[in-house]
Every structure is written in C-alpha cells, then in structure tokens.
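Suppose you are handed a protein chain with no further information: no name, no annotation, nothing but its sequence. What can you learn? This example shows the usual starting point.
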Amino acid sequence: MIPDVDAAYIAGLFDGEGSIHFKRGIEKKKKHKGKPGYRLSNSMRISMEITMTDRSVLMWVHEVLGVGTLKPKTVKGTRKDGTPYLKQYKWRCTFRDAYQVCCLLWPFAHTKLPKIQQVIEHYTTKAFKDNVISLDEYKHIRDNVR
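A reasonable first move is to predict its three-dimensional structure. Written in structure tokens, the prediction is:
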C-alpha cells in the first residue's frame, strides 16, 4: 500500500499528463498453428500511460506503483524553428495492473475520474467475475486431469 500523499500526487500527475484507453472491439488476428488467413476476435484493450520529458518523475512513479513499464518514447521530426523535440519517456500499464492503479487513484482523481470508474466497473461487475477462473483452481483442475 502506498501513502495517500503519493497516491494523490500521482493522481494529479495523471490528471494532467496521463491518458486511459478503454476500448472493446472486433480485432483481426492471425489464425493459429500456421493456418492461412485471419480470424475475428471480440477483444478488450485497457491501458493507462503518462508521457513526459522528466524521466526521474516517471522512474519514481514506476517504483512507487510497482507495475508497468518505463520506456523512451520515439520522437520524430523537429519543431518549425528546426530545433529537435526534447526526449520523452512513457510509463504504461495494462489490464489488471491498470485496474489496481485506478483503485489507488480513484479517491484523488478529477479530470480522468470517468475513465477510471469505467475501468473499475469493468473489473468489478458480476459478468466479469463469472468469466474469470482462479489460477489456483485452474492448476488444481489441470493437475487432477493428468
């Protein structure tokens, strides 16, 4: 558990510099086992990220939250005056890690609150819980079938 002060700071940082992607849609995926063609999949994409030029702040966020990845962001081109853009860094987490972070930030978020609530509701609804099996249960069933 992280202190409320740190969670509030990260929530403010996320409100200003972050983004949440929450999308359900049909995706075209390659068929399995070398079969030609594609198949359609009803997929859910959930991710959240913070992009900024100050790497030390994102390193701190990554250390405090303990989830996600921190990578340099590819910056292409130059400004109109010919000077290069500053190097940017991106912290990003997806799916259940994003859910955990949303739960931490929820009490302190403002501008991103509707999207944060959307992620939390996705993972706490009965329909989601009915479609998820416990990893321990799965291993137990798998081991007993063999």
